[in-house]
């Protein structure tokens, strides 16, 4: 690899050097670390092919991209440089429809390409299309995931619990059949936040709530483990959520790939939706000028009201309050019973200590020892029964309460979308008037462009939140 300057570099390939921009290097490197599951410095054929298919290119193009990136003859795996070339070829096919290496070499003017689009970021509830065969099997459970073996990592205030996440699947869209990784609670949090942000009209399975004290307690860790296992299994067997790149990152990426994935797919603030893109502003005059300012009369955005939908929202509020009380009561009873189990164990420890203290009195020592052992046995049996209560009742009630909260979130998203559509409509009308006034005034081109950019920003936002 030879460095050109701080913002670009070139790779020496079979037919000559290929130039890359700095932003390409950053994105391609992150994607390499994500897809390089085993961290051996190579992207395997199955993993690479599964990722490249996200670009929605024809199979013939995918095979040709892999062959060319392999140097002319398809290889079982690609190194980092070859992976960069493969991703640039994807961008070339998406932009020009051509898949030929000569278009990538430095002496060719077409080597300035946009970043390839793998549909990693999409509008709400937008996922990769499924083939008819896959669509027919959406009700089948393709994933079986266990969250197990929690261990404490770090010291002092930097301590956290890691879990082993083991995945077995037969999904045709997934790059591997079995894999095992280590994840912490914040990784699941990131996944939940990403899904909630992307799929605003979908009920996202809930994750357990945070706890700021006592989060290393063995009972709490077990409760959280069960809840995380329930969460990830429901996500992975969901028709839409299971196909997201975020899920693949959580289940397959090594530590370096996980960091790269969380940086690449960061949680973006909602205000970003209002920022106009360069391509939007550039194409303004040629495609929208004549059609957007034909009339200065504001057209109200009509959103049909749904009485049944309103009633559902009211019922959800009542149900949420009731199940919240049920969770509170069940948690109180469960905590009291768990405390009783601990007290039984503590009594057993006291009797065992007393047996040691009275060892000169054989009969008393024997009696105290047997009593302590009985208390310990009863405590262990009691705790085992409570573990069953936790898995069969308490955890399910908590999860159901979280699911009701997820339904309420979807309802709130709808209400917010309605408000945003009305606000966007009003903003568009104001900017139409400003633009018309600026066009009518001599020497006001700058003001016209500002008003125009604001209007375009809103107009791009409107279709995404059209609610019926």
Largest sheet: 3 strands, antiparallel
What structural class is derived from the secondary structure elements? mainly alpha
The amount of helix comes to: 55-70%
In CATH's first tier, which class of the largest domain applies? Answer: Mainly Alpha
Count of runs of 4 or more consecutive helical residues: 15
Tertiary shape: extended
Q: Examine the coordinates and then state which fold CATH places here, giving the name of the CATH topology of the largest domain.
A: Substrate Binding Domain Of Dnak, Chain:A, Domain 2
User: Spatial order of the strands in the main sheet?
Assistant: 1-2-3
Mean pLDDT: 81
Q: For the terminal residues, how far apart are their CA atoms? A: 54 Å
Radius of gyration based on Cα positions: 29 Å
Query: Which ranges are low-confidence, i.e. pLDDT below 50, for 5 or more consecutive residues?
Result: 131-138, 269-299, 464-468
How much of the sequence lies in strands comes to 5-15%
CATH architecture designation of the largest domain: Up-down Bundle
The number of distinct β-strands equals: 8
Q: How many separate domains make up the residues?
A: 3
């Amino acid at each position: 690899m030879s460095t050109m300057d701080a913002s670009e570099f070139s790779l020496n390939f079979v037919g000559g050097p290929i130039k890359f921009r700095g932003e390409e290097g950053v994105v391609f490197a992150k994607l390499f670390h994500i897809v390089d599951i085993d961290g051996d410095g190579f992207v395997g054929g199955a993993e690479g092919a599964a990722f490249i298919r996200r670009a929605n290119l024809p199979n013939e193009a995918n095979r040709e991209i892999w062959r060319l990136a392999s140097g002319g003859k398809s290889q079982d795996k690609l190194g980092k440089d070859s992976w960069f070339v493969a991703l640039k070829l994807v961008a070339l096919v998406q932009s020009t429809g051509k898949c030929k290496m000569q278009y990538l070499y430095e002496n060719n003017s077409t080597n300035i390409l946009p970043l390839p689009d793998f549909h990693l970021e999409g509008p709400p509830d937008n996922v990769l299309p499924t083939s008819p065969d896959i669509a027919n099997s959406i009700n089948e459970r393709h994933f079986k995931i266990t969250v197990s073996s929690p261990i404490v990592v770090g010291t002092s205030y930097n301590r956290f619990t890691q879990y082993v996440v083991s995945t077995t699947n037969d999904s045709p869209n997934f790059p591997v059949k079995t894999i095992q990784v280590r994840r912490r609670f914040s990784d699941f949090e990131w996944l939940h936040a990403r899904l909630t942000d992307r799929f605003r009209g979908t009920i996202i399975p809930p994750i357990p709530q945070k706890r700021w004290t006592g989060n290393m307690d063995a009972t709490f860790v077990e409760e959280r483990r069960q809840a995380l296992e329930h969460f990830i299994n429901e996500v992975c067997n969901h028709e839409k959520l299971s196909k997201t790149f975020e899920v693949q990152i959580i289940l397959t990426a090594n530590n370096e790939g996980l960091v790269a994935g969380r940086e690449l797919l960061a949680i973006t603030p909602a205000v970003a939706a209002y920022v106009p893109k360069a391509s939007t502003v550039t194409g303004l005059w040629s495609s929208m000028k004549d059609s957007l300012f034909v009339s200065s009369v504001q057209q109200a955005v009509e959103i049909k009201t749904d009485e049944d939908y309103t009633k559902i929202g009211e019922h959800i509020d009542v149900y949420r309050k009731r199940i919240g009380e049920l969770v509170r009561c069940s948690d109180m009873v469960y905590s009291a019973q768990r405390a009783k189990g601990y007290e039984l164990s503590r009594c057993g420890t006291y009797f065992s200590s007393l047996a040691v203290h009275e060892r000169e009195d054989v009969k008393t020592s024997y009696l105290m020892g047997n009593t302590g052992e009985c208390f310990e046995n009863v405590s262990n049996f009691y705790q085992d029964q409570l573990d069953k209560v936790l898995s069969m009742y308490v955890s399910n009630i908590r999860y159901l309460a979280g699911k009701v909260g997820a339904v309420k979130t979807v309802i709130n998203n709808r209400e917010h979308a309605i408000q945003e559509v009305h606000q966007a409509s009003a903003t568009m009308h104001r900017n139409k008037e400003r633009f018309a006034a600026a066009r009518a005034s001599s020497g006001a081109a700058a003001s016209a462009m500002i008003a125009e950019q604001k209007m375009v920003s809103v107009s791009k936002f409107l279709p995404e939140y059209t609610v019926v």
